[in-house]
Write a structure and sequence with these properties.
24-stranded antiparallel barrel; mainly beta; single chain
Length: about 800
């Protein structure tokens, strides 16, 4: 489709017939020798200058998602050439009139639009690629992909095949311009070699692929005819051959940062609302020591967030909540520190004073080292500066496999934690992969015996087109500690078996694919596992997921589970006897096992030009962790994105979870989190944003609701207090209702050069969702802050 239109428009859009070689992806013409041209061009979104006539032409795109193996419906032409200092890409994307989606968005917020993604595997190792994405108006997104088998996840969506998601956190300096045309859109991209790391050889070979997202069809098109079932997406790329005379020059970025924050909080001991102002001056330095190795350093870094973490709901009080890294210094090269079981989690470095990082790759060996000095406030004794050291070394094996070593330590006066581990990912026969890990830790503290523990993991996967499978065993010793990592739930052993069968509809079918997934998941407490005891959790999930014509997605699941009583979780919970007032208590024992039966429905719309949405609903009979009994539960989650113009965007989301007692349908606990984010993009570099999140938590006084109905209490330093579950502490109100407003002005012409001015605060009210109506129950301001951040990137 559109082939004739593409050829006609190509002729009309070019000032003359090009002389560059043509490389048809569907014909397997994947080896490209782009011309080296001693010239520079204006990045204006118009491919009308001389070098574009000599550029190599990449054509013949194939459909990649939701299904692969057929020719793309819309034609795409990519032109590529390079100068001594940069590589240039020009894109002509053909589309039916009125179908192109494009907004004037902030950086990395283009993925609801049509866009082009350039994947450059500059080390040609089949494992990692830098991604440069641009929408039809030239707005940028970027990131990195490091393949480690993460895309074959689970959950209610079942096993997923296809490319692993791009980590969009890193930012790179490059230039782009785009425009919508009568035949589709045209984009011009210049990527300086200063922004890339690549091999040290005189003649370079890079892996390359170009991905086009067509939002009106809900499809992704790929220049290299990649198969979704392959264990490696990057391993199927084409190649840029014969790149010579690349002049990276001196790579030295100096990024001074000035911040000032004025914070106020209600005085807890009396009236008043005092403010304090804290100005800070710091800076970052990035030095490209060689083409392959980069040194980053920072002093008194500004890690202030311009947007707070979105609220999360606690589904299991035994599992810690994970928050993604957002801080600029830690984000660069973060892919080099990726380790199974998240043994590296840089947010553990809470308030760094200074830090340095060396990352790079030489031949098949990559090295990443991070050292950071943290603030005294996060030390055990509040007087030492904790020191973190993290070393990660990986060695390539064959076309897509690798082995890795990890060492971490955290030294805090007389306290220390050290972790040493090894891991490997092996890929064979294109669709099979295995990930293995073994690690040990030693944790010391004054006047205590050292704690020594281990982690063992084996994860086997088959990523076939029709039949996919994942078999995983993971064991975490009860004395294993990772003070530089994130262990969401320690001291357990897990065995997971997941099998998926996928059927595909024919060309133009309403149901593009239907996947049926069966997951058996067993979890032991560590001591029970080593002693041959029973599982504490047994789960059987039946997941059904459908991809429909036009980009719609739907899912339905049935969850059959049993949970065993967790002695550790309730070790401080007691039952009050009818004739007692707290002193006459007995330990709470709970029922030995609870059975669950839950149902899940989900739906996701396509990314329409002005609108997109998703929703999921979980309901049924599930474990009430608060009182350890069965309860009627529901979890509701949904979000809506509205883009009424090319500059205005609004996103609303809502999460709710509740537990109701079976005995009388009374409310045990409830969390509701609506969130609204509104943005107006004045130019590509300037936007204003308003954000508001409301969190309403309710936790009833707990009781033995399925037996005596007597109150449950917890032991405190002064005696006993009513048990309140896990969302609110015993000494806080049953109901906590907080509104968190935020405002931000942002000027970001390029990564590293920014002006931020913002406000954030927290307000409480007695009754949920009154929004300050009435004098008696109006909002009460708890804390707020104003901040300014100024930084400028000097590229020397």
């Amino acid at each position: 489709m559109l082939v004739a239109l593409a050829l006609a428009s190509l002729t009309a859009a070019s000032p003359g017939k090009g002389t560059g070689t043509v490389h048809n992806g569907r014909a397997g013409e994947l080896d490209v020798r782009p011309p080296r041209i001693e010239a520079e061009v204006a990045i204006d979104g118009r491919l009308d200058e001389g070098p574009w006539l000599e550029a190599a032409y990449l054509t013949g795109f194939s459909r990649y998602a939701p299904t692969d193996g057929v020719a793309a419906d819309d034609s795409t032409v990519v032109l590529v050439w390079y100068s001594p200092t940069s590589i240039h890409f020009g894109i002509r994307a053909y589309a039916q009139p009125g179908t192109v989606h494009a907004t004037l968005a902030d950086r990395d917020r283009i993925y609801n639009d049509d866009y082009i993604g350039i994947f450059l595997a500059t080390f040609n190792d089949g494992r990692q690629a830098t991604v440069f994405a641009v929408n039809p108006l030239g707005v940028q997104g970027d990131g990195i992909v490091v393949e480690r088998g993460a895309s074959s996840g689970g959950g209610f969506s079942g096993i997923q095949t296809g490319r692993e998601p791009t980590d969009i956190a890193p930012d790179y300096v490059f230039q782009s311009k785009g425009r919508v045309t009568d035949y589709g859109y045209e984009i011009e991209i210049r990527i300086p070699f200063k922004s890339l790391r690549y091999q040290s050889s005189e003649s370079q070979t890079w892996g390359i692929n170009v991905l086009r997202k067509v939002q009106s069809r809900g499809q992704e098109d790929s220049w290299a005819p990649a198969q979704r079932a392959a264990a490696s997406y990057i391993g199927q790329f084409g190649r840029l051959d014969g790149l010579t005379g690349l002049q990276r020059g001196l790579v030295l970025d100096v990024n001074p940062v000035v911040t000032s924050r004025t914070s106020g909080a209600r005085n807890p001991t009396g009236s008043g609302y005092p403010y304090t102002t804290r100005p800070d001056v710091g800076g970052n330095v990035r030095w490209g020591i060689t083409n392959t190795h980069t040194l980053n350093a920072t002093i008194n870094p500004d890690f202030a967030e311009v947007e707070s973490d979105a609220g999360q709901i606690v589904f299991d009080p035994r599992r810690a909540l994970f928050f993604s890294e957002k801080r600029p210094f830690f984000l660069e090269g973060i892919e080099q520190f990726s380790v199974p079981n998240q043994l590296v989690y840089t947010r553990r470095i809470a308030d760094p004073v200074a830090a340095a990082k060396l990352t790079g790759k030489n031949g098949g060996t990559s090295v990443a080292f991070l050292s950071a000095v943290d603030g005294r406030d996060v030390s055990f004794a509040n007087r030492e500066h904790p020191l973190y050291n993290i070393l990660r070394v990986q060695q390539d094996l064959g076309p897509a496999s690798r082995v890795g070593l990890l060492y971490t330590d955290r030294m805090d006066g007389d306290h220390s934690n050290r972790v040493l581990g090894a891991d490997a990912r092996i890929v064979w026969r294109r669709i099979y992969s295995a990930q293995l890990q073994a690690a040990g830790s030693v944790t010391t503290a004054p006047e205590q015996e050292p704690l020594r523990g281990s982690v063992l993991m084996a994860d086997m996967r088959r990523s076939g087109r029709t039949f996919s499978a994942r078999y995983r065993f993971n064991m975490i010793h009860d004395k294993f500690r990772a003070h530089s990592g994130f262990i969401g739930r320690p001291s357990n052993a897990q065995l997971l078996l997941s099998n998926s069968y996928t059927l595909y509809g024919g060309e133009g079918a309403f149901v593009q694919s239907a996947a049926f997934n069966v997951v058996a998941d067993g979890l032991w407490q560590y001591e029970r596992f080593v002693n041959g005891g029973d599982m504490i959790e047994k789960k059987l999930h039946l997941n059904n997921n459908f991809v429909l014509k036009g980009g719609w997605q739907a899912g339905a699941s049935v969850l059959v589970e049993t949970f065993g009583f967790d002695d550790d979780l309730y070790s401080n919970v007691f039952v009050v006897h009818p004739n007692g007032a707290g002193a006459d208590t007995v330990p709470f024992t709970g029922r030995p096992r609870l059975g669950n039966l839950d149902y899940v429905l989900s739906v996701t719309t396509p990314n329409f030009k002005r609108f997109s949405a998703s929703a999921s609903y979980v309901w049924g009979r599930d474990e009430n962790f608060y009182e350890w009994t069965s309860a009627n539960i529901a979890w509701i989650a949904g979000d809506i994105s509205w883009r009424p113009s090319d500059q205005f965007r609004a996103t609303a989301s809502y999460d709710e979870q509740y537990y109701r007692r079976l005995s009388d349908n009374s409310l045990v606990a409830q969390t509701r989190i609506p969130r609204l984010r509104v943005e107006y993009q004045l130019t590509r570099s300037i936007f204003v944003r308003a954000l508001a999140e409301y969190r309403a938590d309710f936790a009833d006084d707990l009781r033995e609701s399925d037996r005596s109905n007597n109150p449950l209490v917890r032991r405190t330093l002064s005696g006993f207090a009513p048990a309140r579950g896990f969302t609110t502490a015993y000494n806080r109100p049953k109901e906590i209702n907080e509104l968190r407003p935020e405002l931000l002005f942002s000027y970001l012409p390029s990564p590293g050069t920014v002006i931020y001015a913002g406000y954030g605060g927290t307000l409480n009210e007695a009754e949920a969702f009154r929004f300050g109506r009435g004098a008696a129950d109006g909002f009460e301001r708890q804390n707020d802050s104003f901040f300014v951040k100024l930084s400028y990137l000097f590229r020397l």
